[in-house]
Amino acid sequence: MEISTLATYHCLAFVWYFFVAYSITHVRTEERPSEVFLYGGQWKYLTVLNLVLQAVFYGVSFLADVLRLIKKLRCAKCIISSRDLLFSVLAFPVSTFVSISFWTLYTYNRELVYPKSLDGIIPLWLNHAMHTAVLPFAVLEILATPHRYPAKKKGLILLGFVAFLYISWVLWIYSVTGEWVYPLFALFSPAGLAAFFAGSLAIVVSFYNFGEFLNRMIWGQSKFWFSLLSIWKKNYLKLIPVIA
């Protein structure tokens, strides 16, 4: 994809996520279910935090594109490194986890993750913007441009650290309010909840590995075939004088 086209895409994606994040954090305050919007407000939900994460990622991506367009390559290289780290470790695995886990649990029992009382507050389009559109956006980003993944150990340590921070935030909210962020958590014993968090982390790690696999399959093989084609053309051109 041309840099100018990529810059346009990243700019539009940034505006979209900024708009969605603004919309969910400014839903009308009247008739809010008190059991949903307790301590921490919307900022206790992984979905909302993911929207902010995506807005930051696409903002950084747009900045990198602009720097490349104006030939500030040294600055662009630094920003691209930050962009790739942000995408590989957080943006792709978290978006994938949010979308797949939400709709899986919603199909099983929506009251566990998205009580029916929210239907009168959050419009349908906003629900899909938060929980559905994030997945195709993440896949499209992999198709649009290659990303350099960090060393596996470094990537997983960073991902695990961020997961630890969010779990700590969830537990802190429970210790203050006596209410779980998601009603689902109330079904577990302490040991069961620990197992659930560990299982969720394992799923997120699998999405990290899947993103790395897709990136390698799409862009790694492309580079391989391009190199192979270059070698073939070079050898073919050497043979032309001999044949002549």
Automatic annotation (TrEMBL):
It is found in: Endomembrane system. One of its GO terms (cellular component) is endomembrane system. This is Androgen dependent TFPI regulating protein. Keywords: Membrane, Transmembrane, Transmembrane helix. It comes from the Eukaryota. It catalyses: 12-(9Z-hexadecenoyloxy)-octadecanoate + H2O = 12-hydroxyoctadecanoate + (9Z)-hexadecenoate + H(+); 9-(9Z-hexadecenoyloxy)-octadecanoate + H2O = (9Z)-hexadecenoate + 9-hydroxy-octadecanoate + H(+); 12-hexadecanoyloxy-octadecanoate + H2O = 12-hydroxyoctadecanoate + hexadecanoate + H(+); 13-(9Z-hexadecenoyloxy)-octadecanoate + H2O = 13-hydroxy-octadecanoate + (9Z)-hexadecenoate + H(+). It is a multi-pass membrane protein. InterPro entries: ADTRP_AIG1. Belongs to the AIG1 family. PANTHER family: ANDROGEN-DEPENDENT TFPI-REGULATING PROTEIN, ANDROGEN-INDUCED PROTEIN 1-RELATED. The chain crosses the membrane at residues 7-25, 45-64, 85-105, 125-144, 156-174, 180-208. It comes from Buteo japonicus.
